[in-house]
Amino acid sequence: MAAQLGGPGPQPAPEPQNLYTGRFWGELRGILCGMKTPPVAKRRAAATPLSPADFVPFDGLPGVAALARDSSLRQLWCNHEYTEVTNTSAKKLRGSTIWDVLPAALADERAVLMEPALRDGSVVTFHQLYRGLRYVTRVHPLDPKAFGTRGIFVVLSPAVHPVLARPTLPSQMPLAVTPDLGTLDTLTRRELEVLYSVAEGATAQQISQQLHVALKTIERHCESIFRKLALPNRASVVRFAVERGILGFPRDQWIAMAARVREIDPDAESVLQSSYSLRSLSDSTSAKRIRT
Length: 292
Hints:
five-stranded antiparallel beta sheet, Beta-Lactamase, elongated, alpha+beta, Arc Repressor Mutant, subunit A
């Protein structure tokens, strides 16, 4: 009938570009489902601020942690998954800064990476080794209406799906170079390098040539890795690495992270060993560990 009258029919209202139906939904859904590597953050483009209410559709997904911090990086809110990751109650975490719960080297680097979300209101995406697993971290500006203040809204998504073992364009994603080793914290720098090569399927002879180290030395490193990680053989090392997304890091990035191991304050590192429990902060000075 509208065509007969010479005018267009009623047009559907444009779909709102918010968390539920817009580009953010598509990108985050892809990350959470392990189907793609997120694009590089365009730091100059302002993003829609987010709040805990916006995160509701994703809340409860296994391993997906979310938290809100103010402009001083003090924690305002977190979901249950984040308390599980940190092994600390939301009440104890509230008001803490990242320097209260992370070693200074880790906290300083992540504060710099997240700063554009505060400064420009843009989205920042980077990947990191967090508690021994590869995580894609996405930082949005915080909706000031949620808590009456400016800040950031952070979503940490585990990127350990086999599809992500070899991302198409890994070099495009910024890296938090200082690692949180988690269960890998007993390994030395050289053992971390050997672990990566073993996970790639390299033989001891090939690793010896790669690292320019004697074959017997590499064999000793392999034996040490098996013992420290309680893994029976090379096949189990490969599975261990894939399940933690280790091969999602390009080799040069993994080597760079391994090189930073000695730079982590051993006092602060004891906090990592206690799952970031704030209760352990006062005891950290008595828990020094020498990495050999």
